[in-house]
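Weekly structure sync, notes
Attendees: PL, DS, HV (note-taker this week)

Item 1: DAGKc domain-containing protein
DS walked through the input record. Source organism listed as Rotaria sordida. Sequence as pasted into the shared doc:
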Amino acid sequence: MPSILYSTTCYISNDFYRLRIYVDDGNNYSDLVSPKNIKLATDSLDFTATSIPIDHIKPSFTRLNFELLNEKKPNNNIPTTIPLKYLLNVQQTTSLPKNSYRNFSTSLPTPSLETSSRMISLTSSPILEQSEERSRIMLTPNSSQAMFKRRQFSFRRFLSSFSNTDSDVVLLYKTLIKIKYIDVSNSFQWNIKSLELEMDSEDIANELYINLNSCLSTLEQRPHRLLAFVNPLSGKGRARYVYDKKVLPVFQEANIFVDTIYTERANHAQEYIVNEMLDDYDGLICVGGDGMFAELCHGLLLRTARDEQINIDDPHVNIIRPNLRIGIIPAGSTDAVVFGTTGLNDPITSALQIIVGESLLIDITTVHNENGFVRFMATMLAYGFFGDIIHQSDNWRCLGPLRYDLAGFCQFLRHTSYHTELTITLSSHDSVEICHPQTITSINNGSKTSIVSSDCQKLINSSNSTLTEMNSMNKSFDTIGKLPTSNLGFCRQNCETCAEEKQTNRNKDQLPSQIKREGRYTTINCLNMPCRCAKSKYGMSPFVHLGDGTFDLILVKRSWRTSFLRFLWQVANDSRSIEDLPNVERYRVREVLIRPINKGQRKKAGNWACDGELISGNEIQIRVHRQALNLFASGIKLKEKQQHIDSKSETTNWFPCLRNTKKKISQESNS
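Item 1 (cont.): predicted structure, written out as tokens:
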């Protein structure tokens, strides 16, 4: 049974409530602030000690419970339970009744100035003197007459007002406890709501005020001091307005001190983080788009690598997770990182998750070329089509965000493909064994596939067929094409896949499963996040996990323009079954080496882009580091129906002339 720490009564919106602060039995009924029937003791004498011992408070299981004592229907606007972690702040005030003396103002003669000043004298009340520092009320003789006219008439209160007793004067005022809390009934968008609790006396209000603040002091996961970097030019110049007018007041209400730096040039934030002292801060905040987040990510990881004396130029070295967390206030054009970690690019929601102290561990990949370290990747690395768009759009910066649409249209008309060789190290999740060491090579549509496997190695396979049952090269190619569709489940809050402990294979004789792909590709994309944004409902890779130590590799082979247009259409609308397209392959990998092949001097290689920035290199190696960065984010909370999709469901065929040939090939090969 729940353990009650404190209990009292109060009025909320003229309804009589019993307020309890209790610690549940660890069943974790719900983290949502919504009405619930929680069985607590209903004894009228369950009032506990006036002060709650700090040792009895368990922040993760402490809650506030409001029980309606009137015989009325419960008010849906008043929550039954508020978890302590979602309590924002507590204030104690005194105020006048809203409808006081409203009906008697016309029939009662106006008292003299001396009488009215005696009625509302504040200096004669020692109780009101104690609350004067919290809420100072300035009264003049003229304002006292106006208040007297608005009050509802009461003979008892009117006659007692002529006496000098302090207790009668207090009857003219209400002692309030104002509670602000975070409403998370909408799992995507969080809001701030408030409750006004009218207490019976000043002493009870003081007890409740002290006890609630004692409970708030036990929330150690909350930050107390933050360093914010604001890009004034981000999001068409709206980043500064979003921070100053929306986000900063919320931090002030939560009593969080924020030091703000408005960046003046590119890499300003990265240089500051690398060179300056950050010991006084509990976290870093970036206000802007994905580029601003990349600066903080690079600065924090490079600083940690320097402090730990890690050779970042070694592609096989493991990076160390920094101690500080990064919070993201979305104010950019795409905000792919926020969409992937919270599900919505709402500045208030992101600010509230920072205040609560939510924590989300995400994977970070390192990008190396033949010369050494290039940069970290948090969202997406592209070679070919999307890299060419970034390269072309840099020449049209004067057009603003419109340059991306124009560059994409031009690259679609060009329809360029690039001869490329890839060495792919596959993930070991949801795999199938190969019990004989072998090398399998198949050629299909101009692309060559080689599987290099050792004894009892494992390859990803979403279907029930195994590689040992392959009787021809066509069957082997069809099985390889299905490798990426292993576990079709969205990465969500408290994801079981990301929570699994890292499995390390200590057997030196067992090498990682690798395949080699060679052919002409229109675009090659490595995705560490789904890359959802306003122009892509699910992102290019909806089922990539944020912290499982893998990333998705999407290969789009050379095809007709209509086939590539279908790929782009599904990326924008519904990419959950994008691997079913005949020109698309998707792999769940841990490492990949991309090597462009130029057989002629006239043929130019494609452009590389990492997190929206151009990079260079004759070959690029991408390697994932599991849960290398900690964010102020909660993850995406999905409903039960949204957690998994039916593998038999098909995406709407927007182009009836283009049939799914991959399924036909598999049916023919099985027959």
